[in-house]
Amino acid sequence: MTNPVSKWNYPTTVLFGAGRISELPGALAASGIKNPLFVTDPGLAKLPVVASTLAILDAAKTPYGVFSDVKPNPVESNLTAGIEVFNKGGHDGVIAFGGGSALDLGKLIAFQSGQSRPVWDFEDIGDWWTRADADKIVPIVAVPTTAGTGSEVGRAGVITHEASHTKKVIFHPKMMPAIVIADPELTAGMPPFITAGTGMDALAHCLEAYCAPGYHPMADGIAVEGVRLVLENLPRAFHDGSDLIARANMMSAAAMGATAFQKGLGAIHSLSHPIGALYDTHHGMTNAVFMPYVLAFNREVIEERIERLAAYCGVEGGFDGFAAAILKLREELKVPHTLPGLISGLDMDAGRKGLIADMAIVDPTAGGNPLKLTREGALQLLESAIAGT
Ligand code: NAD
Questions:
Q1: Rounded to whole angstroms, how far apart are CA atoms 333 and 197?
Q2: Complex ipTM more than 0.90, yes or no
Q3: Which end of the chain has fewer surrounding CB within 10 Å, N or C?
């Protein structure tokens, strides 16, 4: 295969392919944005990938502002500061540029800049999104630089509510970016740890969506192909960051995961969310730690599905073979096998474990777990991830 280049609408327009970041000025014009706020994170802001992208805007004489005060696992104060910069600069749209953190915060700035209610009023609960003043959402051009969250094709933004140490998912259909530039070259500079963590996030999305109960053959079909792409390409991208075919396939897998998880997620995410909020761990890496324990936990209800998935992916040995492949992949990517391996000095007492279990069972993703996630079940999974058994 040569470098894949295409244009997809599903319904977001995705300009996919190496080098397509050069089309940013055209994407802004097509979205009706004349004076964008470029939202990124402070780590990326120092890298050549941002300088070269801003040079494209300079060459096109596009006026723009830059906001880079975005923490990994963004918090409300990042959003408040971003909205202030957006309003002061008289911006009319957002370029959300980065991993899930910058993409989500950029999307949330575009959304909240026109709202009078607090962002927490738009949590992804029932029809809360209908409270929004929909015509006051400005257009977004999303440019992912990691291949994991798939936030570029999603209608949600994740933000941590610091007072309660919870990650909240904010949802509005119009938070879907107008145009995505998915340029695998932008991901080539990701260090191996981020490549591994974000890639395992894409795998967690595909796997949990596929295993979630309910009838959604479209999501299932997208998820199984997403799993195959990750199994075949993540080790390649991890070992050779400049392998643009592997990077392109991972970028597709990430978008596929986020498309598939409209069906639901499950206990990997239900536990990863409180751990991320309480310990500020990388989201995808935390998912990767929980993955084998949750697979084993759900076995009795997903065995047949996983056998079909394994066969599709060319993994021999049915459920056991697939579980072994996940363990081998984690090992190859240097994913810690346990939570203490991820969080140095971790010391959880019974009260802290109970708190995490309580948070996990009310996480919005818990309902998608194929086995009902009870407090006891969440505690059992937490103990497994601590002990590594
Ligand atoms: P991230 O955005 O937090 O970035 C992690 C680190 O990678 C940062 O230090 C960043 O500077 C660096 N980085 C990003 N791109 C790089 C590149 N090309 N080269 C070098 N370094 C680079 O990580 P992420 O995993 O992409 O996003 C995680 C966030 O996304 C979490 O807050 C998570 O909750 C959220 N999330 C959102 C959704 C959604 O549907 N909106 C889904 C899953 C996760």
A1: 9
A2: yes
A3: N
